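In the previous chapter we treated chains in isolation. Here, by contrast, the input contains two separate entities that must be folded as one system, with a combined length of 224 residues.
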Amino acid sequence: DAGVTQSPTHLIKTRGQHVTLRCSPISGHKSVSWYQQVLGQGPQFIFQYYEKEERGRGNFPDRFSARQFPNYSSELNVNALLLGDSALYLCASSLGPGGTGNTIYFGEGSWLTVV
Amino acid sequence: GQQVMQIPQYQHVQEGEDFTTYCNSSTTLSNIQWYKQRPGGHPVFLIQLVKSGEVKKQKRLTFQFGEAKKNSSLHITATQTTDVGTYFCANQAGTALIFGKGTTLSVSS
């Protein structure tokens, strides 16, 4: 079975542009979360979606938005890119929305460089 | 918000030596999860601890959750070069995983 798949794997954008990152969860998983990992740091929670509804949001500006589609895939959108948005963006999927019973599986991430 | 602090930030060992990373919180944690991230890779789930004083083993890896559920440790016995990477502890707080900054392990043969 395929794991969590993300696209694109690498991309370079210019300040002020916007970017869309895509994620397909593991088959059967209904929850998708997005994390930002800056070099040398642990992943930071951005969003969680479950059954197409936003269930959680981290401390990120409104430039960050996301959605989940009927097939449970998800998109993360970032507008008005800043140099500080350069990071590895990780998508994670799990069966349920959270709690101790749901193992979280991360995709390989999308490396975003803003120049 | 809830934070988990990890020490040390970096650790270099000779192959065959033991390694331990510690995760601490000022508040009681509902659970602690451990992840490993290889250089250039993504975090991979290792284990979850839920109960006070819980100890779990995976081959050469031993995971502990403190009695007060405020700290945890990961101990690797007789490190191998394949153990290289960054080890993160994380707490599931509602819908979010709150990660520590990680301990980066390097191993020389």
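The first strand of chain B starts at residue 5 and ends at 7. Chain B has a mean pLDDT of 95. Compare these points with the single-chain example from earlier in the chapter.
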